[in-house]
Amino acid sequence: MASPKQPRPTFFEDTANDRLTAIITALTAEVATLCDRVVTLESVLAANGVMAKDAIDSYQPTPEDMEERRQRHAAFTQRVFYVLQEEIDALSDSAKLQG
């Protein structure tokens, strides 16, 4: 039988801030894990002679690569901050109705 979940620790008066802190902490752990995996992948590829150890650091993206990255970053940022954009839009709409 599963034991009941322990309540999340609270640090702030507003529980929304605690949830946001938990999300940021989880994302930070994911990013750290991804970084470790990238370094491992680079090391394995270099050890097997697939690429030089500094190949990624010395890589020069083409203008097309840079544009693709820019678009990917913009889409990622839009997904991450979607909730904030909704709030900004709602405030803007509210201000227009009041003004």
Description:
The protein is mostly helical. The relative contact order is 0.04. The chain contains three helices and no strands. Helix content is 69%, strand content 0%.
Report the biggest beta sheet as strand number plus sense, adding barrel if it closes: none
Name the structural class. mainly alpha
Count up the helices: 3
What is the alpha-carbon Rg in Å? 22 Å
Low-confidence stretches: none
End-to-end distance: 58 Å
Mean pLDDT: 89
**What form results from the Cα inertia axes?**
flat
Q: How is the topology of this model organized?
A:
Elements: H1 15-47, H2 63-80, H3 82-98
Concise account of the structure shown:
Helix content is 69%, strand content 0%. The protein contains 3 helices and no strands.
Q: Notable features of this structure?
A:
99 residues; mainly alpha; 69% helix
